[in-house]
Amino acid sequence: QKEVEQDPGPLSVPEGAIVSLNCTYSNSAFQYFMWYRQYSRKGPELLMYTYSSGNKEDGRFTAQVDKSSKYISLFIRDSQPSDSATYLCAMGGRGSSNTGKLIFGQGTTLQVKP
Amino acid sequence: DVKVTQSSRYLVKRTGEKVFLECVQDMDHENMFWYRQDPGLGLRLIYFSYDVKMKEKGDIPEGYSVSREKKERFSLILESASTNQTSMYLCASSFGGTSRREAFFGQGTRLTVV
């Protein structure tokens, strides 16, 4: 079993839809949770960073962490064609030998159709 | 803004060549990482470094070596390039310690070995 599971999709939604992207994990020592967006042929860019449990909102993006269920989510409101990309979850903490190593999900490919 | 710069966007090399991929970061980060990214396999960690001259093997170090002589620079070396090393290579950096764990990525180097 992988430490981090993420459905690769692809996920296709109409413009304006609310998008929900999710990851599950098995290591209860993870404390740092991130979401990255990666456009085709580019490097991943950091979207959201959350420490421990709770919600964080930034514009149209909301990140949620539920440590009791070992489940994290990224919500995108009013999705736009420019949101079409691959979204990677990542996490780290004492479970990753405390060296700053992150464990990544496989990425979910999202397409927002005009 | 954090900047992680990889020396090349695209490289084409011949089988058996020695290949150097360079990465420079300007945020005084302690940690630096090299990943490769392949369709269906996600991001896989090759090597990482948590300090100058310090390195640790990641998940797939075979056929690669690294060098970190200065804090801002981390080099990935393919000793004798092979076609199965054709891939997207991503460099990343992050702070050390436990305060922040998010990693920042370069734009990627797409390497083709022929």
Q: Would you tell me the overall average pLDDT of chain A?
A: 92
Say what oligomer this is. heterodimer
Distance between the termini of chain B: 36 Å
Q: Please state the CA-atom Rg of chain B, rounded to the nearest Å.
A: 13 Å
Number of helices of chain B: 0
Which spans of chain A of ≥5 residues are poorly predicted at pLDDT below 50? none
| Biggest sheet features of chain A | 6 strands, mixed
Q: Per DSSP, what share of the residues of chain A sits in E-state strands of 2 or more residues?
A: over 45%
DSSP helix fraction of chain A? under 10%
Distance between the termini of chain A: 37 Å
> Quick one: how many beta strands of chain A?
11
Q: What composes the largest sheet of chain B?
A: 7 strands, mixed
Number of helices of chain A: 0
Tell me the radius of gyration of chain A.
14 Å
> Could you report the average pLDDT of chain B, rounded to the nearest whole number?
94
Low-confidence stretches of chain B: none
Shape of chain B: globular
Polypeptide structure, described:
The complex is a heterodimer of chains A (about 110) and B (about 110). By secondary structure, chain A is mostly beta strands. Chain A contains no helices and eleven strands. In chain A, the strands form two sheets. In chain A, strands 2, 4, 5, 9, 10 and 11 form a six-stranded mixed β-sheet that branches. Chain A has a five-stranded antiparallel β-sheet with strand order 1-3-8-7-6, with no helix packed on it. In chain A, a hairpin with a 6-residue loop joins strand 4 (about 30-40) and strand 5. The N and C termini of chain A lie far apart (about 35 Å). Chain B is mostly beta strands and about 110 residues long. In chain B, about 0% of the residues lie in helices and about 55% in strands. Chain B has strands at about 5, 10-15, 20-25, 30-40, 40-50, 55, 65-70, 75-80, 85-95, 105, 110-114. Chains A and B meet through strand 4, strand 5 and strand 9 of A and strand 5, strand 9 and strand 10 of B.
